[in-house]
């Protein structure tokens, strides 16, 4: 099936605009980043991406963004060619002016969803949110999953229920990212935290996709956030 190109980007942005939690988590995590920026807003830590349809909309409406050049982090050079090879061909690697110049209405979907992605089981069910495990050591939200608002969780799922239907390439990307997470967590003998679409919190067995309810305060903590 060919990707549809009629995505309504302003509508997607308007429907996915709630803060992830009631506190400004970036003001907490920035204390642990040598750059003084929130990790999620520091492209030397996390390079954002945008659907090509997003870039068409953004470049016509804001000067916040440009396509990643690769020279934005002279102290820690970005391997643009390697990153581009790992990025779906319907997306652009992006860079912004930085958090001091953020225009929240023009954040990309990748900014809005960070650190989460839609978890898709091996038998093709989008059951909820999980997170990008590469950022466990630095992201405050990953270490405080109980603080994620119900409204944000619902907006996230509403958007991705729609987007993954409209954009099959995105569905495939998240299916294989979920598979990568299963393989990784099997290897390290860990369960996968899930913020389920039913409003609950679960640990998922990566071998079977079976879920067990859990008190979110029992989710593990990492790095500077360990108690």
Which features characterize this protein?
five-stranded antiparallel beta sheet; alpha+beta; 31% helix; globular; 227 residues; 8 strands
Can you tell me about this structure?
The protein is of the alpha+beta class and 227 residues long. The protein has one domain (9-225). Helices cover 31% and strands 15% of the residues. It has 7 helices and 8 strands, in the order H-H-E-H-E-H-E-H-E-E-H-H-E-E-E. The chain has helices at residues 9-15, 25-29, 52-61, 80-85, 109-113, 150-166, 168-187; strands at residues 49-51, 65-67, 91-96, 116-120, 126-131, 192-196, 201-204, 211-213. A 5-stranded antiparallel β-sheet has the order 4-5-6-7-8, with helices on both faces. Strands 1-3-2 form a 3-stranded antiparallel β-sheet. A hairpin with a 4-residue loop joins strand 6 (192-196) and strand 7. The radius of gyration is 17 Å and the shape is globular. The model has no long low-confidence stretch (mean pLDDT 94).
